[in-house]
Request: fold
Amino acid sequence: MTAKLVVAVLFGGRSSEHSISCVTARGVLGSMDRDRYDVIPIGITREGAFTLVTSDVDDYRLEANALPEVEDNGTRIQWPQSTPSRELFVVEGDAKRSLGVVDIVFPIVHGPYGEDGTLQGMLDMCGLPYVGSGVLASSLGMDKHFTKTIVERSGIAVAPWRTIARDEWHAKPKAVRAVLEQMALPVFVKPSRAGSSVGVSKVSHWDELSRALDVAFAEDDRALVEETIVGREVECAVLQARTGTPTRASVAGEIVITGREFYDFEAKYLDAPGIELLCPAPLSGPQLAELQALSIRAFEAIGAAGLARVDFFLTEHGFVFNEINTMPGFTPISMFPRCWQESGLSYRDLIDELISVALDRQH
Reply:
């Protein structure tokens, strides 16, 4: 009988996307084949403590009045002390016990201190293989300014933007505003490093700028001000293949906004009205082929690995890049797994494929 793979699933984290990571964990933990995997669920509290938690998916249910959270239960995960060892331990009080030798880590942690290369760097230092992009691509993908800079250099159209530092805004707000007012309204103000539409505001009048920047600066010390792109919002899921085979892109998904300003946090996760998600998106064959090619090019431009969701606008002049997510939402109804389900890869098979690809990269 083939031995089971030991998979450490990490979720939670220090960012404002803590609860969304818990919801993602609910989907992954509930779908992993326990005949193939021994799962070690590791929750990261909002303060950054690594704890051994339950794999009961009901603990991570998303409700508008009760967002799930990793509670500090007093346990502490002890990571390998040197790279020859992949053995994890848990410490509780004066007791310490082994959790076994880990084959692969599945870090489904969104936002800063998880998706931005910091967690990936820690795992690299420990010598533990993991699903998803490495330090550089994770860091680039998390930072909208540098992502757009690199993707634009690869020959893909991006929305015009300016990046504003918090200190610059506080030191000379009139000069900054004068530069920004050269952009056409409305604009979107976003934290440079955040996800799930946290900290994003639409500015239709310049009098709204100051408040929008305050909201963005609550998440990061740099903010992007982007011109609005008129077009359809379409997304494509990218999956790195095993060594020697090409990277793949899925069918497209589309976000149709009918009664909201934009696809905000409440619409994404709390089932707020005014949004319709279409998958597959109604694109012509040539349009889909172009979107897939552009998504793979963006994926490869930042050196991504494993998986990503790449977002574009389809305008009357063609596709315009919006952003790339190197650890996209991964609940069963999220766009990344939905796109793959419509492409013939089930949620459970997608988890298996990501683990297999990550292990293949280690050889």
Remarks:
- The mean pLDDT is 91.
- The two ends are 23 Å apart (CA to CA).
- The chain has three domains: 5-130, 140-158+230-360, 161-227.
